[in-house]
Structure formats: structure tokens, C-alpha cells
Amino acid sequence: MTAADDARHMAHALALGRRGMGRAWPNPAVGCVIVTGGRVVGRGWTQLGGRPHAETEALAQAGSAARGATAYVTLEPCAHHGQTPPCAEALIAAGVARVVAAVEDRDDRVSGAGFAMLRAAGVAVETGVLSAQAEEDHAGFFQRTTEGRPWLTLKLATSYDGRIATATGESRWITGPEARAAVHGMRARHDAVLVGGGTARADDPSLTVRGWGDVPQPVRVVAARLLDLPSDGQLARTAGDVPVWLCHGPDAPGPARAGWTGRGARLLECPLAGRQLDPRAVMAALGAAGLTRVFCEGGGMLAASLLSAGLVDEVIGFTAGLALGAEGQPSLGPLGVDRLDEAPRFALVETRAAGRDVMHRWRKA
């Protein structure tokens, strides 16, 4: 195989792995391609809930053709016994001759042990092929592994003067149908959608993926200190069908806790920072629950608290070609920024049209 061949097959594996985004947590969304004689004989990606793993899926498809083949994997094959046997052992048992992996795992249970197991069995191992792309795809899993919190994407849909609603609260729709469809696709690629209690009360959102067919739904998370949310709203009515997790404070009333638990919601108690939920504690609780990628859709106070705490990893903005003026509602609550060098700063990754609107994506600088 040439370097160009390796890159081409790894790009294929990365594309497959992305099919598991938003579905594979708490495990990473891995892709695997098995190639022999220049022909793909097996493909796989991590399945719903994190099992089966990508290598297992690809080996099952390849069958006996895996003997002597090369396996392209977007993450180091696991080496520990969990709910499934180690993928490194499965590759060895199948007779794979060479493994090309994009990046090493950060999980202490693996972290080089998978590669060592393969090499000890005589399997050739190469790493670093399209590693930058793999680092980006696995950023949420790595961050939860090393820092205990999921990757956080903040989405803002605003007028070009940064407003999310008129002074009277009218907000549907600032952006057009193409931008809204793109947002639903982004929801589908995240493990959870997060909003604040104010947004849940004002908008009565469903927070589900719509218009993308029959796809697994993300967990719907609301940060509401006192659990003072509509008991007859969309989230309450559907909590038994699509997961609802509620991050609340230690002072949330007992009847409210019992009511939401009875509806099927999962409650995550978080400590306070002043009079509000501690945003770091909220993200740590979501990480401890297994989430690797969270998509925050506001509101302004929650978004500001996450930005101020340095917890936002990526900002995706949709800007519409209209102005609402100073009396309109701003997209962010107070940040307490007195000087420019105190402001949260991000680096531009991409800009593209979304119908009549503009989508711009930024990463933490």
C-alpha cells in the first residue's frame, strides 16, 4: 500500500465513523475498513449505544477475507475486557496482517496497550494517518476521558446585529428553512441538546431531530435550578419516549423532583455558583453520565455562563439578513467583560451559505 492508498482508506473509515456520532456514546464513534489486494472486504462503525464496536462489525462482514488483510481504524483498537472482548484480540484472531490507526486512545485502559498487543502477535502497526481529522472527530470522547466533560458546541441564530428576538419576544423565524434544517442535522450528530430553563419555559421546545428520517434522538437536557418547568409542555409529555435529563440545584423542591421523575425524566443534582447552577458542575455531571458531545441552543443566560467559564469549545452561528435594533433581545446575557482581552475568543473554521443566511463555525482559540 502507498501512503496515498492509506490516506484514502482512512478517509473512508473516518466517514464511516461519523455515522456513529450522537449514537455511540459513551463509547467513541469509530470507523473501520478492512482491505485486501486493494479491495474493501469489510466496513463497520460503532453501533447504537457503543456496541458492537467498529472492528467487530467490519470483521464480521469480511469473514475469512480478513486473513492477511490491512485494517484501517480511526482509533487505537481497545485492549481491555469490558462488555465486549478486546478488538485487538479480535483482529489478531481474524489473521489481520497490518493495522493502520489514525490516533492512539487516551483511555488509560487502552493508551498504547492495543498497539502493544497487536505487535506482540506479529501484526504490523502504523499510526498517524489523517490524525488531525481523527483528533477532531474524537475530540468529545478524548475530552470526557481526560477532563471529565463533553465537547460543547454553542449554536446561535441571530439577526446581523446579534439579536435573537424582538422586544416583544417574537423569534420565529429569524433564520430560514435551510438554516433550521442544518441545525436539526447538527442535533443528530450530538449526544444531547442542552437549553436553559428560561428557554424551556418561553419556547416550549421539543428539542428533537426532525426532517432527517427515522434517526435516534439526542438526549434533551434542561438546566433549571428549581425544576420550575411547564408540567404540560412538550418535554413533559414526551419524557417517557425521548430521554429528558434535568440538571437542577440542591434546593429544587421535592414535589417538583417527584413529578419529573414520575414522568420518566432523569434528574442530575448540581451545586450552585452564587445563585445559579455551577456551569462546570453541570458539564461534569453530563460527562459522568457518559455524554461526549453536547449541542447548546441557549438561552442567553446559560450561554453566557458557559462562555464565561471557558466551557464552550465550538460556536456555530447562523446570521440572518435582518436587523432588530437595540430594543431586540440579545443572544447572550451579561459576560462582565470590561476589556477586549478578557472576552472569550474563537478562531474561524469555516463560513458558508445556508439558504439566505450565513453559517459560520468557530473553535476555541
TrEMBL record:
EC number: 3.5.4.26, 1.1.1.193
Cofactor(s) needed for function: Zn(2+)
Cofactor note: Binds 1 zinc ion.
Pathway: Cofactor biosynthesis; riboflavin biosynthesis; 5-amino-6-(D-ribitylamino)uracil from GTP: step 3/4; Cofactor biosynthesis; riboflavin biosynthesis; 5-amino-6-(D-ribitylamino)uracil from GTP: step 2/4
Keywords assigned: Hydrolase, Metal-binding, Multifunctional enzyme, NADP, Oxidoreductase, Riboflavin biosynthesis, Zinc
Domain CMP/dCMP-type deaminase: from-to ranges: 1-118
Binding site for Zn(2+): H53, C78, C87
Catalytic activity entry: 2,5-diamino-6-hydroxy-4-(5-phosphoribosylamino)-pyrimidine + H2O + H(+) = 5-amino-6-(5-phospho-D-ribosylamino)uracil + NH4(+); 5-amino-6-(5-phospho-D-ribitylamino)uracil + NADP(+) = 5-amino-6-(5-phospho-D-ribosylamino)uracil + NADPH + H(+)
Reported function: Converts 2,5-diamino-6-(ribosylamino)-4(3h)-pyrimidinone 5'-phosphate into 5-amino-6-(ribosylamino)-2,4(1h,3h)-pyrimidinedione 5'-phosphate.
Protein name: Riboflavin biosynthesis protein RibD
Protein species of origin: Roseivivax marinus
